[in-house]
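Query structure, 176 tokens:
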């Protein structure tokens, strides 16, 4: 099959490659005027809308921005914010940096993994929860700290963790 020429793909994404994620990718590219210098913002916009950057979108983005696939792939894989598979509907981040580690965050993370039955960076089978390590949330005074969908929780005890995760799994909200 003949590859689309670069000039044509600068305007519209080629019809033959349309996939469910194309509309989101096109919106992000248009929003940042297809500027190669806006690659990170474009990837963030795609990540925000799709909860990941589809690997198949990398060559499309590279083509439209006139960058190499390696350049785009390198950025996607360098920044932990960008995921190649969709994040869960809720994202739990447990701080693993020094202050939190000193007061038991590794144990909290182990409990979370066991309760959710996933590993670090994993997502539950129902797509409800993704568990991620994070390295300092700026809440060291209230260690150990964690976030759920960006909301910060401090001085988290194992019981509090279990309650929060249980409520999240049962009801999709942290309100027990
Ligand atoms: S080390 Fe955990 S919030 Fe700073």
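Result returned for the query:
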């Amino acid at each position: 099959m003949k590859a689309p020429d670069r000039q044509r793909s600068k305007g519209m994404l080629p019809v033959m490659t349309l996939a469910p994620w194309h509309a989101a990718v096109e919106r992000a590219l248009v929003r940042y005027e297809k500027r190669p210098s806006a690659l990170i913002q474009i990837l963030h916009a795609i990540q925000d809308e799709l909860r990941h950057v589809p690997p198949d979108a990398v060559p499309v983005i590279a083509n439209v921005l006139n960058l190499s696939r390696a350049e785009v792939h390198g950025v996607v894989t360098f920044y932990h914010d960008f995921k190649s598979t969709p994040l869960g509907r809720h994202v739990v981040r447990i701080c693993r940096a020094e202050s939190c580690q000193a007061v038991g965050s590794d144990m909290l993370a182990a409990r979370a993994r066991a309760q959710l039955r996933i590993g670090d960076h994993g997502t539950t089978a129902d797509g409800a929860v993704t568990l991620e390590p994070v390295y300092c949330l700026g809440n060291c005074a209230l260690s150990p700290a964690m976030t759920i969908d960006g909301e910060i929780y401090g001085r988290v005890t194992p019981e509090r963790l279990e309650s929060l995760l249980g409520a999240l799994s049962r009801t999709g909200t942290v309100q027990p």
